[in-house]
Design goal:
With about 270 residues, the chain is α/β, with parallel strands linked by helices. It is built from seven helices and nine strands, in the order H-H-E-H-E-E-E-H-H-E-E-E-H-H-E-E. The strands form three sheets. Strands 3-9-5-6 form a four-stranded mixed β-sheet, with helices on one face. Strands 4-8-7 form a three-stranded antiparallel β-sheet. Helix 1 crosses helix 6 and helix 4 runs antiparallel to helix 7. The N terminus is likely disordered.
Length: about 270
């Protein structure tokens, strides 16, 4: 877990990664489906993009790089590296936010409890964070609440910019204002001529989780919990959430707020 002693702007930096962690990570996150990938390939092909080399930045466990390897001759996978694209190359950025209980009859019961758990998890970390870590969290939170509209794509470099948002009426940040000791601010760098498409899809990248699945999501995303820290208030909220979900072992449908930006290099 990141502390003030090892202050870093990468708020989600962990001290240890292993195969078990990445297996848990994949189980707790959405599975990108083939139509999602295919729409990127179609966009790339429509701009005369070549299928020689793809660069997967922030590759994590490498599942995107593995998919890209089925279409591209070569795939570069990196976690911290600038984007290098040739003319007609396709930039594809996407991100998913806080899981959503997709069934309307359970959303009102479960979503507020889940949000309280996340805020309770984030708050002590933010209070203990050093200046760089706190600045990194604010930057990430501002970007998520803006649904990545703050990312500027200069028109002299990029063309045919398409910003797609799924389930954008729901908050994207993992933590809410209650967990923050800073103001959350939205901003937009969207320019005239860019295409913006917003869609509500209740089963987008649908997962089915019981309470164990919810806890898994928290444990792999929030540094507080990977040290085995016990919190009585969190335990109480989890018990309430378990009941609201329908009891032990009951599966509930989960969807996601998602944003994707596509652009073609001039």
């Amino acid at each position: 877990m990141v502390s003030a002693q090892d202050d870093t702007s990468n708020f989600f930096k962990r001290s240890h990664y292993d195969e078990d962690y990445w297996n848990e990570y994949l189980a707790a996150h959405p599975e990108y489906d083939q139509p999602f990938y295919q729409s990127i390939y179609d966009y790339h092909r429509s701009h005369n993009g070549l299928f020689g080399t793809a660069h997967d930045i922030a590759t994590g466990p490498g599942q995107v790089a593995a998919e890209l390897s089925t279409r591209f001759n070569h795939v570069v996978a990196s976690d911290v590296n600038p984007t290098h694209l040739d003319p007609n190359g396709t930039l594809a950025i996407w991100f998913y936010g806080r899981p959503i209980f997709a069934e309307p009859e359970y959303f009102d019961r479960c979503q507020p409890l889940f949000g309280s758990i996340l805020d309770l998890s984030f708050a002590p970390i933010l209070k203990a964070a050093g200046p760089m870590a706190k600045a990194g969290c604010k930057r990430a939170t501002d970007r998520m609440v803006s649904f990545f509209d703050d990312i500027e794509l200069p028109s002299d470099v990029w063309r045919d910019i398409k910003r797609q948002k799924w389930n954008s009426k729901h908050p994207m940040p993992f933590n809410g204002p209650a967990a923050c000791d800073f103001d959350i601010e939205t901003s937009s760098a969207v320019k005239e001529g860019e295409e913006v498409v917003e869609t509500e899809v209740a089963d987008f990248w649908e997962r089915q989780w019981d309470l164990v699945g919810v806890k898994r999501f928290v444990s792999v995303n929030l540094p507080t919990f990977d040290e085995g820290r016990k919190d009585e208030k969190a335990d109480e909220l989890y018990k309430e959430l378990g009941k609201a979900m329908g009891g032990e072992g009951t599966l509930r449908k989960i969807t996601w707020p998602v944003v994707r930006i596509l652009a073609s290099k001039k």
